[in-house]
Write a structure and sequence with these properties.
The complex is a heterodimer.
Chain A: H1 8-15, H2 21-33, H3 35-57, H4 66-110, H5 125-138, H6 153-157
Helix pairs in contact in A: 1-3, 2-3
Chain B: H1 13-38, H2 41-57, H3 68-88, H4 114-120, H5 124-132, H6 136-147, H7 152-159, H8 163-186
The chains are: A mainly alpha, B mainly alpha.
C-alpha cells in the first residue's frame, strides 16, 4: 500500500486546496483509510493553524508617529509636486522660446537657408527660353546665334 | 461669492479623505503584514509608510468594489520584494521548479507530528525563531499562503513569479519550518 501514499508536497498542496480535482479526490479517499497519512496531513493543517495563531498573538499596534509621518510625507510630496508644476509652468516660456529659436536656426543651416532655390529644375525652362530668346534678340551682343530648339525634356513634351 | 478653487499645492479633499480612511481602516493590518514579512519593527514601519505614499499617489487607480486590503498587501509585497533585491544588489535567484509530483510513496517520515505539540503548548517564541530562520523569500510565501490564506495564483501575482515557484518555495519553507520547530522542541529550553 506504500505505493499510494501521497508525498508531503502533495499534502501541502492538498491542504491549500491547490491540487487538480482528480488528484484532490484521490488523496481525500486515501486519507480516509490511511492513519499514517492522516497524521501527516493533520500536521500540515496544524502548521498552518500555528502560523495563523502566532500571527494573531503577535499583532502589533501601529507605532506612535507613523500616521503623522505618513501625513507629513504626503503633504511634502504634494507640496514638492506643486512647486515643480509652478516652476515648469513659469519656465515653459523661458525654455521653449530659446529651444524653438535653436531649432529654427538648425533647420535654417541644415537646409541651406530659406533663400535657396526651392526648385531649380526644368520647370522654368519654358520661361527661361522665352525670356532668354527675347533678350538675345534685343541685345546688341547676341550675335544672332540660333537658340537650341530643345532644352529640356519638359520642353519636348509641350 | 464663488468658492475659490483648491490651491495647487494641496491634494484634493477626495485624495486626502481617501488616504485618511485607508490609514485609519487598514494601517494596522498593513503594518502587521509588513512586520510578518520583515520580522523587524523599523523595517515594517518604513515599508508601511512607503506603501501609504504609493496609495496616496495612485489613489485614483483603486477600483471601488475591489478589496483594498488585497491592494495594500500587494503594494507592501512589491515594496518588500524590491527592498530585498536592492539589499542583495541583484535579482532574486529563482528556485528551480522541481515540484513535479513524484510517484506516490514519498520519503516523508510518516506518523510524526511535532507541530501538534505546539498547538497545545506555548509556541510564540519558538515560532518566531522558526520564522526568523526562514529566508525572506520563503517567509514572504509562507505569510501569504498560510497567514493571509492567499491562493498560489494570488501569491504569484503579488510576488511576481510563477505558480511553480510559489509551490516550490512554500514546500521548502514548510519543510524548513517543520525541521526548525522539531529541533527547538527537542533542544533543552
Amino acid at each position: 500500500m506504500n505505493q499510494t501514499h501521497p508525498t508531503t508536497e502533495q499534502l501541502i498542496d492538498y491542504v491549500h486546496g491547490e491540487l487538480p480535482s482528480a488528484q484532490d479526490a484521490a488523496i481525500h479517499v486515501h486519507l480516509a483509510g490511511c492513519p499514517e497519512c492522516t497524521t501527516a496531513h493533520d500536521a500540515e493543517v496544524r502548521l498552518g493553524e500555528v502560523l495563523r495563531a502566532h500571527a494573531r498573538a503577535e499583532t502589533l499596534e501601529m507605532p506612535p508617529g507613523l500616521v503623522t509621518a505618513i501625513r507629513a510625507r504626503t503633504a511634502a510630496e504634494a507640496s514638492t509636486r506643486a512647486w515643480w508644476q509652478r516652476l515648469s509652468t513659469s519656465m515653459r516660456a523661458a525654455v521653449a522660446v530659446p529651444i524653438a529659436a535653436a531649432l529654427a536656426l538648425t533647420l535654417y543651416f541644415v537646409t541651406g537657408g530659406w533663400h535657396a532655390p526651392v526648385n531649380s529644375g526644368s520647370a522654368d525652362a519654358a520661361y527661361y527660353m522665352e525670356n532668354h530668346a527675347a533678350l538675345s534678340s534685343n541685345t546688341p551682343f547676341g550675335g544672332g546665334e540660333a537658340l537650341p530648339t530643345v532644352l529640356t525634356a519638359d520642353e519636348t513634351q509641350r | 461669492m464663488a468658492a475659490s478653487p483648491e490651491p495647487a499645492d494641496r491634494p484634493s479633499p477626495e485624495q486626502t479623505a481617501f488616504l485618511e480612511r485607508a490609514v485609519e481602516q487598514y494601517g494596522k493590518a498593513a503594518y502587521n503584514f509588513a512586520y510578518r514579512l520583515t520580522r523587524n519593527e523599523a523595517d515594517a514601519r518604513d515599508l508601511t509608510q512607503e506603501a501609504f505614499i504609493r496609495v496616496f499617489r495612485a489613489w485614483k487607480s483603486f477600483k471601488p468594489g475591489t478589496s483594498f486590503l488585497s491592494w495594500i498587501y500587494r503594494i507592501v509585497t512589491n515594496l518588500h520584494r524590491d527592498e530585498l533585491r536592492r539589499r542583495k544588489g541583484r535579482y532574486l535567484v529563482e528556485i528551480p521548479e522541481d515540484n513535479e509530483p513524484r510517484a506516490f510513496g514519498g520519503d516523508r517520515p510518516l506518523a510524526e507530528d511535532p507541530i501538534g505539540d505546539y498547538v497545545e503548548g506555548h509556541f510564540s517564541e519558538e515560532v518566531s525563531k522558526a520564522l526568523d530562520g526562514l529566508s525572506p523569500e520563503q517567509r514572504q510565501i509562507v505569510v501569504l499562503a498560510d497567514v493571509e490564506e492567499c491562493s498560489y495564483q494570488e501569491i504569484a501575482e503579488a510576488v511576481g513569479c510563477s505558480i511553480g515557484t510559489v509551490r516550490s518555495r512554500l514546500h521548502r519553507a514548510r519543510n524548513q519550518l517543520r525541521k526548525l520547530i522539531t529541533r527547538q522542541l527537542r533542544s533543552p529550553l
